[in-house]
# Entry
Amino acid sequence: MSIRHGLLALLAERPMYGYQLRAEFETRTGSTWPLNVGQVYTTLQRLERDGLVEPADTAGTADDQTAVYQLTETGRAETEKWWSAPVTRHAPARDELAIKLALAVTLPGIDVQLVVQRQRTETMRAVQQYTRLSRQADESNDTAWLLVLDSLVFAAEAEIRWLDHVEARLARTARRPARTDAGPSGAPAPTAPSSPGRPGAATTEKSGR
Amino acid sequence: MTSIAPPRLPEPAPAGAAPPTSAPVLRMRGVTRVHGGGATQVVALRGLDLVVYPGELVAVMGPSGSGKSTLLTLAGGLDVATSGEVFVDGTALGRLSTKALAALRRRSLGYVFQDLNLVPALTAAENVALPRELDGVATRKAYREAVAALTEVGVAELADRFPDQMSGGQQQRVAIARALVGPRRLVLADEPTGALDSATSGEVMRVLRARCDAGAAGLLVTHEARHAGWADRVVFLRDGMVVDSTGEPSTPESLLDGDGGSTAGGAER
Ligand SMILES: Nc1ncnc2c1ncn2[C@@H]1O[C@H](COP(=O)(O)OP(=O)(O)OP(=O)(O)O)[C@@H](O)[C@H]1O
Ligand SMILES: [Mg+2]
# Structure
């Protein structure tokens, strides 16, 4: 998402100063996505250049940096267009992870199962953190913040499902006889529970007596 | 830069994990469960170690067949380990008589099964009251407790309905109420949110969490990351082994053996 539309949406409510825009943006998203003042002013300048916002005429106050901005007609139309259109998903999400795993399955000597499990654990920790934050939030006063947290949980959950899927797919592939052009031991990691992610609770100690 | 920076999150207050000095409610030590023999032999759990403290909710995740339900039935004394030991409140389940084990199950354990196991001939309230009555609680009191537990999971109005007069999700909540009724030290839940929509399962997780915050130990099997997110610790199983965990048990093994001795000689035979 671009900052542009976020600022336009806020200005549709009422004209605001740059610093107000920044503060409003941050409170409404529970300070999840910090903006710096520079980003806000640069964006406002571009929006003004494109005819989407203009300085409101404020009697008296007339400093460059302290202008109150308001939407133009075009700006209002653009904001409405933004609300009415779904957010487009151009680049495939979770790019680094997808690339990492794509490389892991093709390179020899990488324990893909281990890479997958480490990621799953890490992402699960994030879900735990979001859940703790949600539990600490106030159901009726922190709605915006809770929505942000929900979206993070959904995204993390999707990533974990995808990791499960990757693992299942690899297990299927490993069970199938290797193609002749692959080396005899060229198959990806076996399904056998090779190395545990971390020692964790499964110690090397033999069963209890 | 036109896109927004990655999310910045405040540090949540630390989870309500157990004080490291308290003795574990559940302790599984080198637990192995082998089904059958010869060519058809299945090793459902291999040498599993797991500790759950009072106040802790631990989630267990893993692919189908990885041993999650086996782990829970062993922790609940419904199945017997092939080797290794299971302690509940310091008592080795394997060394209890059938009668003593049944009493401990009724008194200390709450169990939500993957398949619900409600008694068809009993109403919701009677189903929930059953373990309390079996334990000698007077019928009226058991009924009151049952209604309180049904209220806790939001289905008080179903008290007098029979299982076949309820939806799957409603039956599920009754089963959860049955596991929570009375003072349970250890709550074991196998996919308790299976038939529930997201709002209802959120409520169920809240109730389970509250029980643990009040001092019970919880062990939750789930496929859903969002539910596991309520846990203090998430343990991942594969092929009957713990392959990873999002956190360490609150107390190191060495400390445990140190005070395990005081609780019914729990640590070693
Ligand atoms: N009574 C039994 N006899 C033989 N094998 C069994 C028995 N019970 C379980 N198993 C096997 O033990 C393994 C672990 O089963 P378990 O039910 O614990 O898996 P699970 O992780 O709960 O799976 P799911 O997510 O499908 O519920 C599986 O391979 C299963 O087939
Ligand atoms: Mg199961």
